[in-house]
Known about the structure:
The chain is an alpha+beta fold. It folds into 3 domains: 2-351, TIM Barrel, CATH 3.20.20.80; 366-374 and 510-597, Jelly Rolls (Sandwich); 381-500, Galactose-binding domain-like (Jelly Rolls), CATH 2.60.120.260. An 8-stranded parallel β-barrel has the order 4-5-8-9-10-11-12-13, surrounded by 5 helices.
Amino acid sequence: xxxxxxxxxxxxxxxxxxxxxxxxxxxxxxxxxxxxxxxxxxxxxxxxxxxxxxxxxxxxxxxxxxxxxxxxxxxxxxxxxxxxxxxxxxxxxxxxxxxxxxxxxxxxxxxxxxxxxxxxxxxxxxxxxxxxxxxxxxxxxxxxxxxxxxxxxxxxxxxxxxxxxxxxxxxxxxxxxxxxxxxxxxxxxxxxxxxxxxxxxxxxxxxxxxxxxxxxxxxxxxxxxxxxxxxxxxxxxxxxxxxxxxxxxxxxxxxxxxxxxxxxxxxxxxxxxxxxxxxxxxxxxxxxxxxxxxxxxxxxxxxxxxxxxxxxxxxxxxxxxxxxxxxxxxxxxxxxxxxxxxxxxxxxxxxxxxxxxxxxxxxxxxxxxxxxxxxxxxxxxxxxxxxxxxxxxxxxxxxxxxxxxxxxxxxxxxxxxxxxxxxxxxxxxxxxxxxxxxxxxxxxxxxxxxxxxxxxxxxxxxxxxxxxxxxxxxxxxxxxxxxxxxxxxxxxxxxxxxxxxxxxxxxxxxxxxxxxxxxxxxxxxxxxxxxxxxxxxxxxxxxxxxxxxxxxxxxxxxxxxxxxxxxxxxxxxxxxxxxxxxxxxxxxxxxxxxxxxxxxx
Length: 601
C-alpha cells in the first residue's frame, strides 16, 4: 500500500514538472462568436471542481485527472461563507481555503480557470455560499441592492479582487473569465444589482471578460445576462439553446457553462444516476460544433461538516446528502468511472491522443472498530440564554449545529404541541423522557404531549439545523424554531436556550458521562490502530442520525433513511498508529461497532 501511494506521488511530481507554465501575459477577449486567446479562437473544454470539497493534499491529483480526460480549463465555485465566517474575518490561506494555492496548481498543470465567485453560487452548498451571518438581520434581502447585503458583498469582492489580480490572464495568470452572480434569471430581475457587481470588480482592477450563466430560456437570459458579458447556458445542450443566446445578444460568444455529468441526491432518495448516453450526445454536439463547455462537475468531492445545502421541493424541504459524488466522471474518492473513460474516448477523437488517467490513490478497509458510550449532550450544555420566545439560531449568533429550547409548561400541561416553522429536525422530551421526533422534510410540525404527574412539566426540544436552501425563492432559511411553539393553541413563553454549534473545540472539550437513556442524544468514542493509511469510507449502518468525527475532522452528517450509509474519510486525515473516532447520534443509546470500507457503496 505504501508503495502504491509513493507511486502516485512520484507520478504527480513527474507530471507537474512537465506541465507547461504560463508565465507571460496573455490576452483573452470576447469575439462575436468565439473566445479569443491571444487573438486566436479558443475552445474551452472545462471540468468543474471545488477546492472546498477536496482535501488540499488531493488538489493536484484531481486537476491532473481532469487534464488527462482532455480538459484545458478548470472551473471553480468559490463559497463566500467558507472564507468569511464572521463579518470582515477572512480566511484564504489555511488548509483547503488556500484559494491562490489551488489556482497556482491549475496553472502549473498548464490549464486555465473559469472563476465563479458568486456572491451567490448555488452548488448544493449551504445558503448557496452566502454567509449565514447576514440572516442575523431580521429583514435582510439578498441578491439585490439591499444596502446591507451589498456592503457585505462589496467587502467580499474587494478582498477577493486583491487575491486574484496577480492570477488574471492579463497578468500572466490562469484566470480567463469571471462569472457575475449565478443563474440570476432563475431568481430575480435586478439588472442594477448585476451591473453593480461588475463595477466592483472593475474598480478593483479585475480586467478580464465577464460572463453570466442561466437556463437557456428567453426570460432567464433576459433577466440574468448583462450587455457585454458572455452568455453561459445551463446547459447548452442543442442548437435551440444557443439560438436563445443569439437572440439575447448576437455580439458575444455563448457556451455551455454547465453540462451536467450527473445530479445531486437528497436524503431519503435513491442515488441519482443520470443517463450517460444523454451526456455523451451533448458533449459530442458541443465538440462537433466547436462550442466551449464546462462539465458540471468533473469531480464533486464531499460536503464535509455542515456545508451540504438543500432544496425547497417535496413537502417544502429536501436536504442534500453529505457525499457530493454527483455520479461524476471522477468519483468522490478520486477514481475514474465509466463516464470518465467514455468522455476520455470521445474527447480524444476530437482533440487527439490523451494520456491515461493517473493510478488510483490507495484505499483501505478497516476491521470492526469497537465503539463505547462516551457522553451525553445533556451533560455538556453551555450556560443558557433566557428568551421570551424561541428564536432561530442566527438570532443567538449561531450558524450551524444544534440548539436546545427548554421551558416549563404552565397552563396547558399536555395536548397538541405545534412548532411553527421548524427548521429542520427536532427530538422532543417531556420531564427528561423522549416523546418523539418532528421532521421538516416530512412536513411534520405537531406532536402529542401525554399527561404527567408533574406540577410544572419541563419541555425540552433539541433542534438540528440541516442544510440551508440554496436555490430559488425560499433561500431565507433560518434554522431552529423560527416563529413560535404552542400547546393546544397557547403560546409557550419564557425559554432557556442552549447553543450547541458542535464546533471542533466543543467536541474536543466533551466531558465523559453516563448516557441519559431516557432523553437520548449520545456521543460514542472508539480508537483504532493503522499500520498503513489510505482513503476509507466509515460504514455507519449501525447508527441512526447524527455526525462523525475522525481525528477531530468532521466527516459530515449520516441518516438511516439513506441512501448514503458510508462517509468518506480521506487518507491524509488518518495516521499510522492510534486514531480516534467520535459519533454523535440523536436517537441511539447503544454503542455498536463501525468499520471502514474501500468504496462509497
